[in-house]
Design goal:
Elements: H1 2-9, H2 23-42, H3 48-76, H4 91-104, H5 112-128, H6 142-163, H7 175-195, H8 220-272
Length: about 270
């Protein structure tokens, strides 16, 4: 059994290496975004039960894929070790842990929109720059597929919650995302301080400055929080912009329908005369 699983998950040679903004990178982006938008439209006019089932299924699969990775990693890596960088101190892995609580626990309803927005931002950050999936790794290796599937489902869950109106955003509550980012920064600081050693240092949430050395280390936490909060604001802007466009389209269609009805009535009147 062990030999079979190692053969299944371990990469023996690099085939079709994935590089930043290569055709394979764009393939994953288009698959994730395209399938999510397609699913949103496919179930748009379906029953609410069908939509809830989809969201619940994603809320089960996201933590399941995350937890399963800790059992598969030792089989997929030659060292046989677990990658501690996968611990939930990054924003994406942390949001993945919070998804089932936001989906199933009513006590999380007041902050569900925070988890939805941060899930969208975190997944989009990774999909755009998949750092752990670059550098001498095959496009269809376990490491690449697993991480894109995880972030893709995280993106889908957040997107569909907004698209189907399960979560509604308001500008007056955007401060909650900022507070959440500050808490995540403190949590990541704890992780970096606890697990970093002379042999290996961690940079969860990118706040130590080692990932982006061109930014002064003392400013890194503030830079990260400001940048991600800015992306949250962009999500808000896209959300409200989309609503306005849809309202205009609906209004225009209403006018067109009204005009057709008026024409029909006029024709009927003419015929009667």
């Amino acid at each position: 059994m062990r030999d079979f699983l190692i053969k299944l998950f371990r990469e023996t040679e690099v085939v079709l290496e994935i590089k930043l903004f290569s055709i394979w990178h764009f393939m994953y982006i288009f698959l994730i975004v395209g399938l999510t938008i397609g699913l949103a439209f496919l179930l748009k006019n379906k029953s609410e039960n069908a939509k809830d089932f989809t969201l619940k299924l994603l809320a089960y699969l996201i933590p399941a894929i995350y937890i399963a990775d800790f059992f598969i990693m030792p089989l997929s890596r030659e060292s046989g070790e677990i990658d501690l960088d996968k611990l939930p101190f990054h924003i994406c892995t942390l949001m993945g842990c919070f998804v089932p609580f936001a989906q199933f626990n009513k006590k999380f309803k007041p902050i569900k929109h925070v988890i939805v927005v941060l899930s969208l931002v975190a997944s989009l950050m990774y999909i755009t720059y998949p750092g752990s999936a670059l550098g001498g790794i095959s496009t269809f290796s376990y490491k690449v597929v697993q991480t894109f599937v995880f972030h893709g489902m995280l993106f889908s869950w957040g997107f569909l919650n907004l698209a189907w109106g399960r979560v509604k955003l308001t500008w007056k509550n955007i401060w909650m995302e900022l507070v959440a980012l500050c808490i995540i920064a403190l949590w990541a600081t704890f992780g970096n301080a606890t697990f970093s050693s002379e042999q290996h240092s961690f940079d969860w949430f990118f706040i130590t400055g080692s990932t982006f050395p061109f930014v002064p280390t003392p400013l890194m936490p503030f830079t990260v929080i400001a940048a991600i909060f800015g992306m949250c604001a962009i999500i808000y802007g896209i959300y409200f912009g989309t609503i306005k466009v849809m309202e205009k389209i609906a209004l225009k269609r209403g006018v067109v329908v009204a005009t057709e009805v008026e024409k029909s009535e006029q024709n009927t009147t003419t015929e009667e005369k």
